[in-house]
What does this fold into?
Amino acid sequence: MVNTQVDLSGLVLDNPVIPASGTFGFGYEFAELYDINILGSIALKGTTLDPRFGNPTPRIAECTEGLINSVGLQNPGVDKVISEELPKLKKVFHKKSVANVSGFSVESYAKTCEKLDKEEQIGLLEVNISCPNVQNGGMSFGTSAKSAAEVTKAVKAVTTKPVYMKLTPNVTDIAEIAAACAEAGADGISLINTMLGMRIDLKSKKPVIHNKMGGFSGPAIFPVAVRMVYQVYEAVDIPIIGMGGVSSAEDVIEMMLAGATGVEVGAANLVDPFASKKIIEALPAAMEKYGIHSLKEIIGGAH
Ligand code: SIN
It folds into this structure.
């Protein structure tokens, strides 16, 4: 019998696999397809203080081995997430979830996190300072060590649950940003969010996406994500949730060898709604194939 259990700052998961924010709604939508309690946890749809309609369409561009999105943080706002979405999830998911929080000011990050911190269904706060699709928010906080640290400090000051800062790969030195978050009190680091990308339609000769650029995700970015998780593992002593193009049980193992404790599955859920389930079911055989008895033992094993 293999052991797939992992521990994210005291949040013990049956397995490291977590559907990534923005690819799994508020989770309960998938409960119609299978028993979502097999998941390690669920990273919920990105939540902001106020409701957001999101960006104008088209917001999606298909690419080889991935896709570009420019959703723009569409969500009902934190109060409705708490009053409407979490109760629906509670009926079908009996584990703790990961709240994913975005903001447009340090204060709005802190206020949103403070509200979600009071919810017993939430086991961990993933603070998204990496959304590439909004102006003066998201990624603008994650591209400087100083502002990343400011958001971290403000959130930590008003919360009790583990705080994981979700970082953008669209920087020169992601290890420096991760180290600044750790220094400011982050309990963990999530990485990577999407890479800025663009497609141009040959018929119209104009960008496919209304906002011109968006975030590229999917299997094509997996090697970049592994490289960055590896670099961040060397820079900080706090746990990492690795993500970016993870599509198989083997990818989960590779991400953990690079340094991840938890592993989020993103774009794969959009291609196949059963992707996270299939990965979890395939994990024991993949572990046996590579002589792994316990996943905990391989974290950072490639260093
Ligand atoms: C979006 O809603 O635009 C995607 C969220 C993100 O990339 O952080």
